[in-house]
Amino acid sequence: MFFDTHAHLNAEQYNEDLKEVIDRALSEGVSNIVVVGFDRPTIEKAMELTEKYEFIYASVGWHPVDAIDMTEEDLQWIEELSQHPKVVALGEMGLDYYWDKSPKDIQKEVFRKQIRLAKKVKLPIVIHNRDATADIVEILKEEGAGEVGGIMHCFSGSPETAKECVDMNFYISLGGPVTFKNAKKPKEVADVIPLEKLLIETDCPYLAPHPFRGKRNEPSYVKLVAEQIAEIKGVSVEEVASATTENAKKLFGIN
């Protein structure tokens, strides 16, 4: 059974056929999905999905691209939601230097506030990183984020950085890019990071794996990520599925 640790089933891309998408995931052996909310509308929709489906959980936080929009009320709201039994993590949070909507200093401040909140409510964190690896690692260390640990979501960095994050009590999550022919780094990371520190995800509707690259992604495709990792590691798909599901349940506190 596969655990998709990062999905955006709360995205408008699924407005027309969400039930079919979820049914396909179940038929492909997906046992659990974490839907990630990163602003008011997506958090609200994520919470609705957790109420409707027993096997769907939520992670709630504020995306770095929109850091400039986050208010103290929003942070208070996230803290309240963190007490919900199906909220299993905070995030996605982090830094994004690709888009320039939110100034870097504001991104960093919002990131630090969310790490501090996670430590207060004792939940793991989900890290979004785009073109900001050095600053993210520095902030995680300075804020003592290893106390709660979490996920380096859709990890695209080097094996060396992956090891550094594992040493800080983080799991490395791989998605569609590990299946891309030209994606050297994710394949190297899949090779060197032990199975007990790996997770799998889709980040759907984005980053669909080969052979669906460029199309809308969905949780049923997480199986393709597991198959690629199994091939790289020379183990069975069942072994990858079992280990990554066990890892996710342990991290999220799901029995």
Automatic annotation (TrEMBL):
Keyword Amino-acid biosynthesis: no
Keyword Metal-binding: yes
Name recorded for this polypeptide: TatD DNase family protein
Single GO molecular function: DNA nuclease activity
PROSITE patterns: TATD_1, TATD_3
Binding site residues for a divalent metal cation 1: 6, 8, 92, 203
UniProt-listed InterPro entries: DNase_TatD-rel_CS, Metal_Hydrolase, TatD-like, TatD/YcfH-like
Cited PANTHER family: D-AMINOACYL-TRNA DEACYLASE (PTHR46124:SF2)
Pfam families: TatD_DNase
Entry GO terms, CC: cytosol
